[in-house]
Write a structure and sequence with these properties.
4-stranded parallel beta sheet; globular; 2 domains; Rossmann fold; 9 strands; 5-stranded parallel beta sheet; alpha/beta
């Protein structure tokens, strides 16, 4: 079967078209008019982004994106509870695509009892209602997407909010260069034969073990792992260097593909520190003795920030193609829906 036939058969919600048009999410988010006039900008000494799933990954990506520029602590909170250090000088971003994420609502309610500064990013739901009652500014984003397919909205809205509040600066032309990249890559990845599809074919029949580098590409590695889980309905695992060199690397000594069929996927970047590059090379030598297949994913764009976005987009396409090749709907998340029903 041609890949277009797999798509027609299994992609009931046409996520193929959503992926192709991801650049339109970026355009909307960056041009969206926002009013943060009520937020006092002076004196902010920490930022906390509270959210789950795609909303939290947006914050992970932000931390990697501005690894050399963030001058205050930036914390990603995946929890029901508000970090104890939050105070009047903390900026809290409450991020939930649906507006109904119960962990995020719990944190929001706790935050209202403090004097921290709060901004909400959502399509609506309970979070918008709570925000309106408490006169908390809300940045509305486009509804109608699966949250994990709305990373362009959540990430670039976060980027705009923190630019407006002067936590970071975005160089002129950066966002436009990413939009252009996504337009170009969408044409490439939507062809009948393309590199994202080739990677997906290489992964078929295997459990992915993804390795990235803390502080550089950890967001990409975790995003890829999560997208394999949700899109491809596939168990996948992620760890980071150099930490995995202190524990997980030993596990490969007893690797037996008859018991555990896997492929290692390394997220590679030319900006890694020299010692990390050496660690990665040594690790590849060790794992090659186990005869496990290795896939290296790397972007060759000039800017580190653009390379991150390039890798994120490639990973989304890889997991999409893995889903339809395995005969799964890349939209459906049955176990998550079941869990929410039982929690209700």
């Amino acid at each position: 079967m041609k890949i277009s036939e797999f798509i027609e058969k299994y992609d009931s919600s046409n996520q193929f078209d959503v992926l192709k048009k991801t650049y339109t999410q970026i355009e909307f988010a960056w041009n969206n008019k926002i009013d943060l006039g009520s937020i006092k900008k002076k004196g902010i000494d920490s930022v906390v982004v509270t959210g789950m799933g795609g909303s939290a990954i947006s914050a992970d990506l932000f931390a990697n994106f501005f690894k050399d520029e963030l001058e205050i602590p930036f914390v990603v909170n995946r929890s029901y509870t508000l970090p104890a250090f939050v105070n009047k000088n903390t900026l809290l971003i409450v991020s939930s695509y649906s507006g109904n994420t119960e962990e995020t609502i719990s944190v929001f309610k706790s935050a209202l009892k403090t004097k921290c500064r709060i901004v909400c990013i959502t399509t609506g739901g309970k979070i918008e209602n709570i925000a309106k009652k408490n006169k908390v500014p809300v940045v509305k984003i486009l509804p109608g997407y699966q949250p994990r397919y709305a990373l362009g909205l959540s990430f670039f809205t976060l980027l705009k909010v923190l630019t407006r509040i002067k936590i970071i600066n975005v160089k002129p032309g950066l966002v436009n260069s990413i939009i252009k990249l996504y337009k170009d890559k969408s044409k490439l990845y939507s062809k009948e034969k393309n590199s994202a599809l080739s990677y997906a074919e290489e992964i078929l029949g295997y459990i992915p073990v993804v390795y990235s580098v803390e502080g550089f590409t950890s967001s990409v590695g975790y995003r890829l792992k999560s997208q394999f889980n949700e899109n491809s309905k596939l168990l996948a695992f992620h760890n980071v260097l150099p930490e995995m060199n202190h524990n997980e690397i030993v596990g490969w000594e007893s690797f037996d593909e008859k018991q555990f069929q896997t492929r290692i996927i390394n997220i590679v970047d030319k900006e890694y520190p020299a010692r990390v590059k050496k660690r990665l090379d040594i690790m590849n030598g060790i794992t090659s003795e186990s005869k496990v297949g290795v896939i290296n994913l790397e972007s060759h764009e000039k800017s580190f920030k653009v390379r991150l976005m390039d890798l994120i987009y490639l990973c989304d396409w890889i997991t999409y193609y893995t889903a339809v090749l395995r005969g799964y709907d890349p939209s459906e998340i049955r176990n998550i829906d079941l869990l929410k029903e039982k929690l209700a």
